[in-house]
Amino acid sequence: MHACMYLFLLTVAEQSKSTELQFDFEDFDFTTKSAWTDLQLKVEDKTLWVPKSFLIVVSPVFRRMYESDFKERKTLVLPLPGKKYEDVLEFLKCTITAAMTYDIVLQVLPLAHEYQVKHLLMECKYFLLRELDSIPKSCVKDSYDTRKTKDYVIKYSKICVMADKYGFSDLIEKCVEAFSVVNCNYYKDLPDFHKISKDVQNKILLGRLTQVEKKCGF
């Protein structure tokens, strides 16, 4: 469980001492109204139930909202237009305890960035670093035109897009290093390569050129 959650949960625990209510820390259900929920999030015509204090603790964006003169400050219902219900639900779950998978990172990383949930951003970054390291370099090194290699390189590019978009500089460096052993013929066929910024693309190409020169003894 993340450190910022302890602040919220300890507050709830103190409140529980003087009441008959018991709070289940690990199995909090955002889909059901409870004695602890005082705010409704409306997503795709569905409702998620959250304690307002929870959002204030985990997200400086929500904290500023409720500390300012925004109309949402006193509202009991907060619409989240343009968001997907399953993504927001997974995001809320991950703020308490992050059981990360690659697909979950794809779901929650945009929301963690939008709402500036730093501990969740770090969880996503560390997962992607581990994911990148898990790809066997021998399967991509200077090879070309194999199905498995192409799948791995596609994952490289997807991770690199996320690293670039969300400013994960150490992950970008890892991606540049990973691409340095990949045959350049792959680059033009990667569906996500054009989404990488020109600056990072140039670093990738320079890394590849340096690798080729070393191999050729230049």
TrEMBL record:
Superkingdom classification of source: Eukaryota
Ranges of residues in domain BTB: 37-92
PROSITE patterns xref list: BTB (PS50097)
Name of the protein in its database record: BTB domain-containing protein
Record organism: Sinanodonta woodiana
